[in-house]
Every structure is written in C-alpha cells, then in structure tokens.
C-alpha cells in the first residue's frame, strides 16, 4: 500500500521536488557546520575550566577578560597554582607575560602585580585540590587542540573559496560580505545554508526558511498572545544572522553606528518592546537586506528609508506582464 501511495504521488501534476544542493554548497556547508560545532565544544570546555578555577583559584577569574586567551593559557599551563605563581621569578614572569600578550613592560608589570595580589588572596580563600589542577591542565590541552582544528577549518574554507572564485556562489558571498555586520565566515555560512537562491521569490520566504517566522498557536477560538520564532529552519543560519543583527546595533570606536538606520530603528523599538523582541525585528531587516542584495546581484548600498522609498522599483513578475 505504501508503494502504491508513493507511485500515485509521483504521478501528481505540478509536484514540487526538492533540489539537491551543488557540490560546492555541500563542501562549504559541512565545513561551516563543523566550525560551529567545534566552537561550541570549545566554549563548553572554557565554562568547565572556569568552574574548576572558581574552586582552586577564584581570584584568577578577575585577572583576564578572556580566560582562554593566549596569555592566560600560558600562565595556567606553566604555573597554574597560586603557590607556583608566587615562587616564580619576577622579571622572568613579566617578560613571559609581555611576550605572550604583545604588550610593553609597563602593562605587563601591572598585570604581574594584579596576579600576585590574586595569588596571595587565593591562598586564604580557596580549596587546593591536586585533581582539579590536573583537570585544568587537561582542559588546556583540549582547548589548544580545538583552536588548531578551528584554524585548519578556516584555512580550508578560504582555500575552497579561492579555488572557485569564478562561481556564482562565491560572488554571492562577496555581495553579502559587503553588508556591514556580515563578515567572511557569516557570508559563507548564510549562502551555504540558502543553497539555490533562485527558489526564493520574496523576503518572507527567506525569512520563513531561516525559521524566524512567528509560530502560529491557535485552537478553535483560542489565539496565543505571545508569539515566538518557529525555529523550523537552519539554526546555523539563524546564528549567523543573529550575530549580524548584534553587529548592526553596535557602535564603532569613534562612536559612529555600524548601521546608523538599523541602530536608530532598534533604539525606537526598544522603547516599547523588550530588547530581544527589538533584536528580532533587526534580524528581519537583515533578512530583507540579504534578499535585496542577492536579488539585485550587487554590493550593499547604504540608503536612508526615505531615499529607498523614492528610488525603489518593485520587480515585475511574469503573470503581471501577461
């Protein structure tokens, strides 16, 4: 009976069939997904290491903003415990901190004094357990191995992109990369998750494909008042667009907004809506920009909403011409 049902389905006219993505799309898609898997695994190891340090060396967590940075990992690997830090030679330790952090002796000396204060406090307000120090040393090795693997994946992605520079997919990546807030990796990720852009006819279809459309929860006369994202699409694509939306509402070091119109729109939305709801609206805007750039097949142009309304010409569909 199942075979007959499938055969009848195949004879249905106007049957929509799924398309197998191109080989280049699959090559880059599996690499980008592996990249995000490894970064998630690295973040999990960092969280565990912070938990271990909170027991044996809690004051160390205040010494570095990035506990898995190059300087921090070097100190934890070579010294680790407060006692070993206190017994270390002052000038030699300052020189190692300067070399690892690529900063001058003055900044390295300040970092050294901060570490010494933390190590002295840890001798009183900590619990010294040798097994935890062993776990920290093991975690450092795992983090470094993951860093090497992540760097290798990035090199492979760049190599594939350079080898297929004439392909349409790579040109689309360059168009997306011209959008402020979308970097190289995000552009590659979004295009690989999209695949064949020609199947999308409107921004709403792209928005729904990413799983950012509202989930409908209705039963009879009941209608839900709080609506959330359906999250039916690719979580990797949502992750890249979420990162782009975060970048669009930030400011540069000189105080200028990276995306001035989206930043202003976010500030207006935040007045009456929760911040995550306002950020979801920015993600919607980013999807509209992505669709427009890929539809027009050209780099991003920053225009005000008023200018866009006066210059925008809606596309003409074939049924309208007929």
Total beta strand runs: 2
Strand fraction equals under 5%
Poorly predicted spans: none
Order of helices and strands: HHHHHHHHHHEEHHHHH
- Strand arrangement, largest sheet? 1-2
Class per helix and strand makeup? mainly alpha
pLDDT averaged residue by residue: 88
Net shape: elongated
Largest sheet features:
2 strands, antiparallel
Task: Provide structural commentary.
The chain has 322 residues and is an all-alpha fold. The chain folds into two domains: 131 residues, Orthogonal Bundle (Helix Hairpins); 138 residues, no CATH class. Helix content is 65%, strand content 1%. It has 15 helices and two strands. The protein has a two-stranded antiparallel sheet with strand order 1-2. Strand 1 and strand 2 form a beta hairpin. Helix 3 packs antiparallel against helix 5, helix 8 packs across helix 9 and helix 10 crosses helix 13. The radius of gyration is 26 Å and the shape is elongated.
Features:
65% helix, single chain, 322 residues, two-stranded antiparallel sheet, mainly alpha, elongated, Helix Hairpins, 1% strand
Quick summary of this structure?
This protein has 322 residues and is mostly helical. The protein is built from 15 helices and two strands.
How do the helices and strands line up, and which of them pair or pack?
Elements: H1 2-10, H2 23-56, H3 70-78, H4 82-87, H5 90-101, H6 105-122, H7 130-163, H8 168-177, H9 184-194, H10 203-209, E1 218-219, E2 222-223, H11 235-248, H12 260-272, H13 275-296, H14 305-311, H15 318-321
Antiparallel strand pairs: 1-2
Helix pairs in contact: 2-7, 2-9, 3-5, 5-6, 8-9, 9-11, 10-13, 11-13, 12-13
């Amino acid at each position: 009976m199942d075979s007959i049902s499938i055969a009848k389905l195949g004879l249905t006219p106007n049957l929509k069939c799924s398309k197998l993505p191109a080989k280049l799309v699959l090559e880059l898609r599996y690499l980008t997904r592996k990249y995000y898997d490894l970064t998630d695994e690295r973040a999990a190891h960092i969280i565990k290491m912070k938990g271990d340090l909170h027991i044996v060396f809690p004051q160390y967590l205040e010494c570095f903003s990035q506990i898995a940075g190059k300087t921090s990992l070097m100190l934890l690997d070579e010294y680790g415990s407060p006692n070993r830090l206190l017994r270390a030679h002052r000038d030699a330790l300052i020189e190692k901190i300067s070399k690892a952090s690529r900063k001058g002796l003055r900044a390295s000396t300040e970092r050294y004094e901060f570490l010494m204060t933390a190590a002295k406090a840890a001798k009183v307000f900590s619990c010294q357990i040798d097994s935890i120090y062993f776990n920290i040393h093991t975690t450092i090795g795992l983090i470094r191995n993951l860093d090497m693997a992540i760097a290798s994946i990035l090199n492979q992605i760049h190599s594939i992109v350079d080898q297929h520079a004439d392909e349409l997919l790579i040109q689309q990546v360059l168009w997306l990369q011209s959008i402020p807030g979308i970097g190289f990796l995000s552009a590659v990720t979004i295009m690989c998750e999209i695949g064949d852009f020609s199947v999308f006819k409107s921004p709403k279809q792209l928005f729904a494909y990413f799983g950012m459309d509202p989930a409908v929860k209705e039963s009879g006369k009941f209608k839900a008042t709080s609506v959330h994202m359906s999250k039916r699409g690719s979580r990797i694509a949502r992750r890249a667009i979420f990162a782009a939306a975060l970048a669009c509402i930030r400011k540069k070091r000189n105080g200028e907004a990276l995306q001035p119109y989206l930043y202003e729109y976010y500030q207006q939305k935040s007045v009456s809506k929760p911040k995550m709801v306002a950020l979801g609206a920015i993600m919607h805007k980013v999807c509209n920009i992505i669709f427009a750039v890929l539809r027009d097949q050209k780099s991003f142009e920053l225009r005000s909403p008023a200018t866009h309304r006066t210059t925008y010409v809606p596309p003409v569909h074939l049924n309208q011409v007929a």
